[in-house]
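Standup notes
- HV: blocked on the assembly model, inputs below
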Amino acid sequence: MKKLINDPSNVVEESMKGLARAHADLLRVHFDPNYVVRIDAPRAGKVGVISGGGSGHEPMHSGFVGYGMLDAACPGPIFTSPTPDQIVAAAHAVNGGAGVLFIVKNYTGDILNFDIAAELCRNEGIEVESVLIHDDVAVEDSLYTAGRRGVGLTIFAEKICGAAAEAGLSLAEVAAIGREVSERGRSMGMALTPCIVPAVGQPTFTLREDEMEIGVGIHGEPGRQRSRLLRADEITDILATTIFDDLPFRRGSEAIVMVNGMGGTPLMELYIVFRHLAELCDARGIAIRRNLVGNYITSLEMAGCSITMMEVDDALLRWWDAPVRTPALRW
Amino acid sequence: MKNIMISNVRVESAVLVDWMLRFADKILENKEMLTALDAAIGDADHGINMARGMEEVRRRLAAYADEDLGALFKTIGMTLLSKVGGASGPLYGTLFLRMGVASSGKSELTNGEFAAAFAAGVDGVRQRGSARIGDKTMVDALLPAMVALQRALEEHASLCEAMQAAMQAAEEGMKATIPMQASKGRASYLGPRSIGHQDPGATSAYLLILSAAEAICQAAQPDAIAEASSGG
């Protein structure tokens, strides 16, 4: 294992401290329990938007704390969900009396911890709504599994719910918009190389030099198939057509599109993927209204990419375009 | 003769503390093994997470003086809830919190009360995770252990004997997860590829039952030794 770290057991805390120093104008961090919170929280009368999950996916979620997006993020240990005490403390820190919205990715650990936190918050008089993100189309048979995993669409939900909360919408309204995002978006990813959890020291899975994993999860969970390495355009074909067919996108659909790097893929390669994705959208008559290309939801140093597409209308686009000022997303 | 003598063991806070210290030792001893099992079908953190939680339980138990078993179980449950994370934290946390509710205000539990508290804990785990037998989870070790414990006590076994039966049932349940296809948690995404691997959650659950059996039988032993020496 070759990593730019001091001690595997301190990576999350040291990284949070660095984030706080780098973005002292936007956010502050709290330790024991760990959470990252907007500098001006709590804001009276504003719904607090909270997300969280295992660390190792940076910039998600802590990098999206700030004006117009998340009020707080609860980072767990690497690839491990945060605990209820963190989430409850974050809820208290952001509650301005209008309640809090939890944006939860569909993993068993995340759901259980956020569920217990929601129970505890309600016992303490904080109103809570949850939006579940489960956009990974690589999971084919949701009936026999824990369901589709929450991946790239989480960023879209955090941006859009954050904008709606900033505009003063009620908890029920912000939650309804979050659920609309959840229904309208799909993602799929692939890996060229595995990643190493610092405390483990070994790759979470192995891929031969000529292999790739199609449909990989953000913790290196296996996907639909392990196959021989294909060219970028062929990989993009597989990811994009699976997403197109699942929603389904049709001629005339308008979309926000993200080509996301898994952490170890150069931006140059992500643009190669975006180039072909745009061609595929053109051919199908799908209009890309907005896009993100870069590392937004990563898996440590894994090489690979994911594509997220959300069908949008003008109302969702307005929330997307609303000002945002966070470490990793701002316009 | 020995069976009659050791049937008098009561589960009191010293036994519970011993149970937890033994469980902490076993988790730390088997940390790499649990993580390796999880790497095969999950996300390679079960050993690390459980070790983090049980180290904290051990630290807090060192300062524990209260006689109330309900409070002790609650401390253990809240510690695991806040330190373990993942799915295991809420599930083990729920197990102990429910055992705490069932033994609230008591300084010792009779055999029947202990079995009832354990059953309440296992029910809590089943509800929280909505897992059933055969889903390849910790329930595959916990539920057979609960049934074996109750059955043995109904047949008038001592608590030590009943826990040994529970331990055997948990071990069989743990091994039975090997040919199962997972339908809960991250392992479920593997589909048929999860077959052939022992479930890490069922494995740590077996270690929990094994630790309980050791602590309870150890508590029963001094009586037996005293009786034997006075008789000789």
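- HV (later): unblocked. The interface with chain B takes residues 33, 54, 76-86, 107-109, 112-113, 115-116, 139, 141, 144-146, 149, 197, 199-200, 202, 204, 217, 219-222 of chain A (CB under 8 Å). Helices of chain A lie at 11-22, 84-94, 108-123, 153-166, 171-184, 232-246, 267-284, 314-321.
- Next: hand off to the docking folks.
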